[in-house]
Predict the structure.
Amino acid sequence: MSFSSFFSHVQESPWYGAFLSPVLDQITHGSKVLDVGTATGKLIQMLVREKSTDCTGVDIDESMLKEARRKLDGVPSTLKQIDTQADFPFQDECFDHVCICNVLFNLDMKNRDRLLSKCHRVLKRNGKIVVLSPTGMGKLSILASRFVMRGNKTIGLWYLLTRKNARSWSTGNYLEDYCKSRQLTYARTVVFDGLGLVETLEKK
């Protein structure tokens, strides 16, 4: 099994949909959404089905996008491969929302700044960047209960692989400080029984 196929399997686990679900609460029905680091397209699948959004997904990994195209066959959406060193191939202020799930907490400061600058450029006024990250924390009893549920075996591996960077991210103030320096409105909410963190950056 290729890594992209394995990751697609992870995204189809019941727990992963529950992890992504709080992002949908931030998205306006029928809006235009850019999903950065879309991987195999699970968020797009949920957004189109539940929010009737016009979704574009971008990723640096063509094998992930190939799996996403297979999964999203028949789902109205656009997928593009991007280069981390190049700007996004979109006009200024063309998306209502930009979603960044499971990405920023793994990047160094330089690449975080670069990615957020690209996202800010394509975001419409009064639009919102929605960032979802694991916290690396939460109650172990809850994690254990989710781990033993049928179809949720991959959550333990996810927790272990992301814990170090996730804890550093969730206890820091990177996005809050970023917003202060750029006159963006910042908010954060702990979700998924303490295992996830949703942060929003609103452009005025």
The helical segments are 3-11, 14-24, 42-51, 62-71, 109-122, 140-148, 154-170, 174-182.
